[in-house]
Specification:
Elements (H helix, E strand, L loop, with lengths): L1 H7 L13 H15 L5 H5 L3 H16 L3 H14 L4 H13 L3 H14 L4 H13 L3 H13 L7 H23 L1
Helix pairs in contact: 4-5, 5-6, 6-7, 7-8, 8-9, 8-10, 9-10
Length: 180
């Protein structure tokens, strides 16, 4: 009877309520427990595939690269709500904050990306650049060192950028010491 009332109200997206069998109850309880313990993301809880998340991330990245920063910001905000444990999403959100001249937010996002993936060379380099721009030479040097140590072969472009920035940092510090 309730089903008829919903259908007569013109709701085309009516989904019948499934009978909660013991196995279904157990599965739902397990999922919610994992979610509450931060073992799965909201996307995993809702059954959104990683492929769909990355398709959305690709669209957000394209918008960011073409200067549509606000649209990219909204997309990556949504992605972070759906999967807050994804280092790439945090790294791109940090780049968006960096582009919007919000260094504190950018540093926080890069830090979160590094906490999730401590081999993320680009996050180390970008965070180090922010530190360098704000004359926090010690933290900048630390980030550049971490990036360089992750690429001892010298093949990674981000690590090579860190090497160049270390040279610039040394020159800046030498020039500052000569002024004194």
């Amino acid at each position: 009877m309730a089903e008829e009332a919903v259908q007569t109200a013109g709701n085309p997206r009516h989904v019948p309520i499934l009978d909660p069998t013991p196995a279904r109850k157990k599965r739902i309880i397990e999922l919610f427990t994992k979610f509450l313990e931060d073992k799965i993301s909201l996307a995993e809880l809702k059954g959104i595939s990683r492929e769909k998340l990355f398709q959305l991330a690709e669209a957000g990245w394209v918008k960011f690269k073409h200067g549509r920063v606000e649209e990219a910001h909204k997309i990556f905000q949504a992605l972070l709500v759906l999967d807050h444990r994804n280092a790439y999403f945090h790294s791109v959100m940090a780049a968006i904050h960096q582009k919007k001249n919000k260094p504190v937010e950018a540093i926080l996002e890069y830090t979160r990306a590094i906490q999730i993936n401590n081999k993320d060379i680009s996050s180390f380099v970008n965070r180090g650049e922010i530190f360098l721009r704000h004359r926090n030479f010690k933290k900048a040097a630390e980030d550049f060192k971490n990036a360089i140590l992750l690429d001892m072969s010298g093949r990674n472009l981000w690590a090579n950028r860190a090497r160049s920035l270390v040279i610039a940092l040394k020159r800046t510090m030498d020039a500052a010491s000569k002024k004194k």
